[in-house]
């Protein structure tokens, strides 16, 4: 018997085409079975959600797009009894009022100044947030110095009258400040040259700022009572966000400090501000404060809520940052100290970069909350976006049943775009900063 | 001094300080704090003497306006304030500066309006505020004029076939919760021995939406508001406003108590507008009227007498008002009457010569 078998009779010379996988393990059907209908509970939930979407989405689309009115000049365009079919959102109303929504009562010939402000704000935000932008150090100088001064001059018209003798007072104060710094350096036996440069730098920044504010650029002065709409909303939000982070960090460090008075002051500030509703702070600022001050020393009506929201946001930010500081392992502090770093170096180089990364979701959460809280200034008679919409929707020229809904839908869209943008940016930021954690 | 110290010692050293004593102490402290606060209020009120001088020095008038009420105070699409109350402020500015644009409007919510006036943040409050005795006497305010006689009214569907509020027996009525509207309604129906069913909502928006959707037979609020709300109905022509007015709501501008010259300016600005209407002086013909022989017109327009100087203005003060703003009738028709979308009838706000209540005091 021979074991040699001629295999060629049994073995195929070419490969069989692979069978497709069973239809229920691959493809959309399988995906649905696995993710949507994997069990009785999942199936029921899927069906309920689908039903809810079916109930809500079509009417919303019908209201916002299908039945919406896009053109028209007054209420007749948006009324069922005049156009003869059901009317959804009346976008013609928003289009007609869009200038009021954007600028409030800001004088029409001067609105280009607000547009430049929006542009400058966009440049500043883009420069700082786009991580690969060139010269981001200059960007910081721009955002925290050039931009605020330029915006102030643009929006108010600048040309502030400081009164006679102001510059003399300023010069004396400047000399005193520089002298004090140099003297301090002398007594502490550190470099007097550095102290001189720092002192002159501070004086130069303040002096240039004040000189620009006093300079007459020939712009028509526009009182803040005329500002309104998106301008005010963005202004309050920007000031709140820009001030709250540095102040919040300082307050959080103060609360964790070993110096008792500093710690007590921080704790009292944070707890007091957090213990009071924002709306109380605003009403206190805009209604009660003038009662206690002499009539002519009143702070501007727009500045008061600006300061109120900034203080409020700082207290919340402080607690968020404190969470990050407490989450840092003790070894990080000890390691920094054993390297011979002093307190500021330890905080700036070791602790804060890690602590802040941990709390990015909390920080952005506070920013988003603050952005939406700006609408509360409407309660004290500041014409922010919400207030301009509320004043416009009762305009008899546009009296129609769906006008209010349209106005609020527009506001919702505006707030959603900004808040969603912030949220997406923070997710990207978290991923980038967490790169070092992945192995 | 000695007594005070001893009293203090007794209060705090007494070991058996009862709860009652403690509460008394708290009350005392509270009343001191309250006293200080009121003293502060009164002193700021008093220190705001000579409003006219401060307005002239600032170069503009600060006017407390509504945050948005159709026909009375509302910013238009360009953000310019319009309305009957707003034009009254423009009239005061015209009388002082000969320029109706020298006004800054500060929109005030109902709860802030009197505080803003007391604290001196606004020079005059022209914001559809009802004149009442307690406001006049207890809040440190003066109401120099009534520029709109309002009152609570009813709106019903035409197909209900009702032509008088007296026929509303057994009706369901939509109204806003916790307002005087609700109380007036109860008074009126009890006085007329009628039954009704109240359907109350938190906001005026909700209230009207409910009426428009057919939740109730009638809708009640101030008459001026009824006309504005009717425009928002899905079919405005299906609704009528009933003739009965069941409450008195005299709306007028307010100033701080104690500055009589300023109150005079506000009072006579309004009366000049009324007199102008009565005498037929309008925005268009005011320049020709200056040559009129009618002594009343002469006194109004300052060609005779020195009436303007007596309140610290120029003698052509009324000319300025009429030229820039117009007489009362013109302002009324433009903002709330036939010239506007609201189309409110003059009614009680007609001149006394035409059966209304508006009676211009004589300038002489």
TrEMBL record, chain A:
The keyword Oxidoreductase appears for this protein: no
PROSITE patterns: ABC_TM1
Subcellular location: Cell inner membrane; Cell membrane
Family: Belongs to the binding-protein-dependent transport system permease family. HisMQ subfamily.
Topology of the protein relative to the lipid bilayer: Multi-pass membrane protein
Highest taxon above the source species: Bacteria
NCBIfam families: HEQRo_perm_3TM
Keywords: Cell membrane, Membrane, Transmembrane, Transmembrane helix, Transport
UniProt xrefs under Pfam families: BPD_transp_1
Cross-referenced SUPFAM superfamilies: MetI-like
Residue ranges annotated for the ABC transmembrane type-1 domain, each copy included: 230-426
Ranges that cross the membrane: 36-57, 112-131, 138-155, 167-188, 195-213, 225-252, 264-285, 305-325, 346-371, 405-423
PANTHER family: INNER MEMBRANE AMINO-ACID ABC TRANSPORTER PERMEASE PROTEIN YHDY, MEMBRANE COMPONENT OF AMINO ACID ABC TRANSPORTER
InterPro entries: AA_ABC_transptr_permease_3TM, ArtM/GltK/GlnP/TcyL/YhdX-like, MetI-like, MetI-like_sf
Protein name: Amino acid ABC transporter permease
